[in-house]
Design brief:
The complex is a heterodimer of chains A (291) and B (163). Chain A is α+β, with helices and mostly antiparallel strands and 291 residues long. Chain A is 34% helix and 25% strand. Chain A folds into three domains: 7-53, Uridine Diphospho-n-acetylenolpyruvylglucosamine Reductase, domain 2 (2-Layer Sandwich), CATH 3.30.43.10; 64-173, Uridine Diphospho-n-acetylenolpyruvylglucosamine Reductase, domain 3 (2-Layer Sandwich), CATH 3.30.465.10; 179-286, CO dehydrogenase flavoprotein, C-terminal domain (Enolase-like, domain 1). The longest helix of chain A is centred in the last third of the chain and has 25 residues, at 265-289. The mean pLDDT of chain A is 97. Helices cover 33% and strands 15% of the residues of chain B. Chain B has a five-stranded mixed β-sheet, with helices on one face. Chain B is globular. Classes of the chains: A alpha+beta (291), B alpha+beta (163).
């Protein structure tokens, strides 16, 4: 499959990328890893006249802790996350998710920033970033601005990024004692979108009382979804299997999946419930281990 | 507008003018006439087009040639060194890791990258590690065995790495 013709511009700095973007306006698309955009161009769902390659902009590929925040550069690949010692030691939820994205070769190219900026509710990072209560840093011609993840996903393939904005960094509150996260998804085969996916980030105290909780869902709602009602049910309460079961039930009720090749609406609600229960338990196990 | 690219493939540098929309797999197969890299699904799923781009396995049907400007690429044609098979090629031959052979070049390139990260893998890790590549003949068992055997050999002897 041959994409439509386009002109190619390689930006070596953010400023250069913005200059191209301002010159070509709506006819231009930014390209990073290209593993969402290029398949769409090959199918001619997307036919940008100008491609601005931002993948070689220096200084946007890192995973580091700084001032109590985990900072992930937007050009960090999924493979970088998967093989990161820092993630293995302190942020296993990010290893969980990266290992379930695409397949090993796709993960060598696909970027974390792209996974979010694409705005697809079927992508996996959105749910994880909702659970982690991340802050998205975007830069445009007029400077940088922060977008709380809850305000980032606006609709079908639509984000809060402004026209020429480039997502440059993802910020996550650094993990602390009592904190644990997990991600899991049901997929028909490697590389498929999730039939349902659940991200949980949980903080408990020594008596197993929930101090903080984030739960995000993948591909069972038109936009990436936080299960606020389940979070409220858990927060401030002592964790028990009955309570976790209740949170799972709420997740199954509150999502809005559509029937497709991956299953009926009922099936998706049912596995969302079960996955939520399992993922809270996995996060709890990790949270306890960190105390 | 065409762009000039310089790409090193299997140790030889090529400079050509290409259309930006030219996919890397087409550049490799048609411009360089290195037809060992195959096109299977053409939708980023099957892995038949897998090559090494600066040492990482990637699907060359999902990369524009212009993105690889300045890069070092290895394809299956670069695996033999001094007239000798790479241990992975040897093991695929020895343990019947192929039947029709269509997936083999991609499978080999993927296996190189996988063993670089995990030189002593379990069977399950191998299966997960080659999950980017489809084989419709073997049922994978002999591929997994071949990779296991090649890994053993590669742990014993220093192998001249491709590209």
């Amino acid at each position: 499959m041959i994409p439509a013709s386009f002109d190619y511009h390689r930006a070596s700095t953010l400023q250069e990328a913005f200059t191209f973007a301002q010159e070509y306006g709506e006819d231009a698309k930014y390209l990073a890893g290209g593993h969402s955009l290029i398949p769409m161009m090959k199918l001619r769902f997307s036919e940008p006249a100008h491609i601005i390659d931002i993948s070689r902009i220096q200084g946007l590929k890192y995973i580091k802790e700084e001032d109590g925040i985990l900072k992930i550069g937007a050009l960090t690949t999924e493979a970088d996350l998967e093989f990161s010692d820092l993630c293995h030691d302190k942020y296993p939820i990010l290893v969980d998710v990266s290992k379930l994205i695409g397949d090993p070769s796709v993960r060598n190219k696909a970027t974390v920033g792209g996974n979010l900026a694409h705005g697809d509710a079927a992508n996996d990072h959105p749910a994880v970033m909702l659970a982690l209560k991340a802050n998205i840093v975007a830069e445009g011609p007029n400077g940088t601005h922060n977008i709380p993840v809850d305000e980032f996903f606006k609709g079908f393939f639509e984000t809060a990024l402004e026209q020429h904005d480039i997502l440059i960094e993802i910020q996550i509150p650094a993990t602390k004692a009592g904190n644990g996260g997990a991600y899991n998804k049901i997929e028909r085969k490697v590389g498929d979108y999730a039939t349902s996916g659940v991200a949980v980030n949980l903080t408990v105290d020594t008596s197993d009382t929930v101090v903080d909780i984030g739960i995000g869902l993948t591909n069972v709602n038109p936009v990436p979804m936080r299960v606020s009602r389940a979070e409220e049910a858990l927060k401030g309460n002592k964790l028990t299997q009955e309570l976790i079961e209740k949170a799972g039930k709420i997740a199954g009720e509150d999502c809005s999946p559509t029937a497709d090749l991956r299953g009926s609406e009922d099936y998706k609600r049912s596995i969302t419930k079960e996955l939520t229960i399992r993922t809270i338990n996995k996060a709890w196990e990790r949270a306890k281990a960190s105390l | 507008m065409k762009k000039e690219v310089t790409i090193n493939v299997n140790g030889t540098s090529y400079t050509e003018e290409v259309e930006p929309r030219l996919l890397l797999v087409h550049f490799i197969r048609e411009n360089l006439e290195l037809t060992g890299t195959h096109i299977g699904c053409d939708t980023s799923h099957c892995g038949a087009c897998t090559i090494l781009l600066n040492g990482d396995s990637v699907k060359s049907c999902t990369i524009f040639t212009v993105q690889a400007d300045g890069a070092e690429i290895a394809t299956v044609e670069g695996m033999m060194q001094d007239g000798k098979y790479h241990p992975l090629q040897e093991a695929f031959k020895e343990y019947h890791g192929l039947q029709c052979g269509f997936c083999t070049p991609g499978m080999l390139m993927r296996a190189i990258d996988f063993l670089k990260h995990n030189p002593d893998p379990t069977e399950e890790e191998i299966r997960w590690g080659i999950s980017s590549n489809l084989c419709r003949c073997t049922g994978y068992n002999n591929i997994v065995i071949a990779i296991e055997k090649a890994a053993e050999k590669m742990r014993e002897v220093e192998v001249e790495t491709v590209a």
